Amino acid sequence: MPGFGYVDRRTALRGGVAAAASVALTTALSSTSSAQPVSAVPAGMSAIVTGYRELQTGINRPSAERAVALANLDRVAKSYHDSMILDGGPLWKDLPLGPGSDFTTSMYARLRAIAVNRGTPGGALAGDEGVLGRIKAALELLYTSDQYSEKTAEIGNWYTYEIGIPLYLLHILATVADELTQDELAKYLKPVLKFSGNPNLRTNNPSVVETGANRADKSTISIVSGAMLGDADRIKRGVGAFTDVEGGGAASVIAKLHRAAGDGFHTDGSFLQHDSVPYPGHYGIVLLTAVASAIHVTKGTEFELAPDVRDAAYALVSDTFAPFVYAGALMESVRGRFLSRQGESAHDIGHQLTGAVVLLARSASGKHKDELGGLAAKWITEDTFAPYLKIPDPERFAPGPDLVGIPGIEFAQELLATGTRPAPTVATHRVFGQQDRMVHVTEGWSASLGVASTRISRYESVNSMNLHGWYTGDGSLYLFLPEAKGHFTDAYWPTVDPQLLPGTTTKTGPTPKLEQVPLTGKDHCGGVRWDARHGAHALDFVSQDGTLTAKKSWFFTPSGVVCLGAGITDTSGERIRTTIENRNLGENGSGVLLAGGHLVGGSESLRRKRWLHLEKVGGYVLLDDAEVTALREDRTATWRDVDKGANTKGTTVPYTRRYQKLVIEHGSKPSGASYAYAVLPTASVLETIASAWAWRVRSNTVTVQAVRLWDATLLANFFAAGSVDEVSVSGPASVALGRTRNGWQLAVSDPTQRQEVLRVTVRRKTVEVPVKDTFGATQIVRI
Description:
The chain is an alpha+beta fold. It contains 16 helices and 34 strands. Strand 17 and strand 18 (598-600) form a beta hairpin.
């Protein structure tokens, strides 16, 4: 599958300021030599190089936060500089020279740290001519040893050669471009011409047309490298590659696809990479970062991106990304395999998004500027777990540290100094049918689901990453709470029991074999939006090995989520369980658990308890007579357990976190088992008790699952033709029925995305609802 390459993609700025995250050289260049310094190239091209250097070393805007970040950068850069050996052998003892891609990226990453520190005003190595000489000597060694030259053979991951190493190389060259001759620049860029000559195509397989983030990376690379080399055609080709001028627009990175699956942005706001993986939480941000970089560096030059391209980029932020941000962090459901990466927590990638948005706001005007600035200010203000302006450790992990630095802080403080007001939190319920994702936002908490279908994969596990991802797409209910902003960042993925993710129905015993992007055999995955505060979602579930099946529904309201399961059947003989909660309480965490007024400690079987409450988390209402096991346990693991990637692998440092589990037991070989419970995030004990009799389940069968809300609104998921109360449907559907100011209203969607028309009968009146090519989007009918 194209595009599975990986390198350290988090930008050189923790805040994610654009350039560093996505640049690699590309296009074809006739390497005409000239002894002129790069400053001698035409003004527009020189401005591009200057703008790109600014994204590495900043604008020298003093502040206390900048001083702290610079001190940390000094520490890391000096360490790399002092340990660098220039005797013809490896630059660092732990990074051997030789063919292959396992260590080369890290070599350039470390050299980048030195170069950026030297180019940053006030840096410990700033302006040091001796350091410049050592940087040049290191570049020469890496080139002449064919570690990365036009003679280097592409071994291993294509991405490393075509985008990854060039990314870091461009960062280095940008900081010293004024001190290199055109001959030197041309020489060090020769391998980029070999591996990334055309931003539109994959070099190691020219039949592959680049899409999504990979195309955006290469487009920006082409612009910056062309400017360094004084090649206007290269710059223009890079600008044109964003909208795929050479391909007639078919692979434009900002075009909206009106279909299910496929790389890129979609008409409902979805973003996919690798054809079937929802990726607003990584590759989408990489793409946005590349566009923001290109807008920044070309602004005011004859190569400036067209106004319609800039406007389209601005609009992507609120449509695709903002719904999945909570307290400055990206939601787990749209982070793909990167949720297992120690150096890219939800807050890290959230910082990268914030940095890109700050940079976009810097170039925007009018309404776009206000909207972008407001969102960035909101995320910076709300992220109290990992403050955006505080960079305690610029070296995130070994062996290839991502440096986070000065420009992100400076640009953000420049924005905040204008008095930009943070955007308010607005209640939102959105269904993204083209990526099988949904998001539910309230003023106090938010939620999202990890689900899968024949269109969207259960998980992604490539390059030895996401090694415990088996059940992340099997109905995981991710809750984001105000008193637990770091829940998923705080060593969650290595230490959580991966077989008991909240919302999933799983079995004990061996886990399934990891696959790259496994799909399911079921079309039915999706839901309906009633209004900004209510919606229903459904999953026709089958386990990866095919032995376990169930019909699962989630009904979202302002106060909580009602979870129903029916037809739970398994033939494996393993014990089957549905997880209500598996909460990370932190290291030595605490929190009182009550069950019907009874204090629960340790491990306990709870029978006929109507409600439960977990301190600082919320309440749980049991809507049937399920047997629930409560277990509080400490779990110890390392990040290396979940990520062994060559350039991404986590550390072997053990982390211990305490978890509170609440699990419904279905026994072995269940046939037609069910569950019904409600999760009430942030609810108090009294609110939980008061809600215990408020939920009216109208049906929980393999045909239809439905609930009535307090105002008589009906939310229902039909897995086949059937009826509940006053509503009947002709086939699989998600339906909401209720009164509005304008009378009765019906909301309908086709979660299978296979039907042409749905016939819905309400109180003996039948309406036909066209659903062909709606890709699961909600259709509204007045009745």
